[in-house]
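Lecture 7 notes: from sequence to structure.
We start with the chain below.
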Amino acid sequence: MNSRFALSSPAMGRLGGAIIFAIGLTDAAFKYYAIHNLPDERTADLQSVLAFALHRNPGIAFDIPIPLVIVLPITAVICLAFTQIAYKHRSDNPRQALAAFAAVIGALGNGFDRLINGFTTDYIILFQTSAINLSDVLILLGILGVLWYDKHNPSHAN
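Predicted structure tokens for the same chain:
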């Protein structure tokens, strides 16, 4: 494979970062659309495995009700920690850095949503019970990627 296109190259890192950022912007647009156009999940027809409806999540994952005054500072600390991981590994483990960047963009997306609306806007309903958004996907894949690439970091080999 041509090294110009290797995932660890700076150009691919920038492309990956741009794609992650674009997913974050797409999530913000979908949240706006959901609030203004989608039916509330209580009135929507959710008879399929995948449905699109508005779910206002007042807390964190699984609708656990935690006040904003607690959630927002925790979100900020998590964002700072993952930003540090991304910065620290930008050269020696760029895949891990991209994964950390994905988690940060997802956390910021949901954090801004909570700050602006007082809740997190979920719009993808899975199996008639689970509500998620693209920021949730970025957070989950980012955390899994950070853990995976930490475990499989060539610099950890003895």
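Points to note: The beta strands are 50-57, 120-126, 130-132. The chain has one domain: 3-152.
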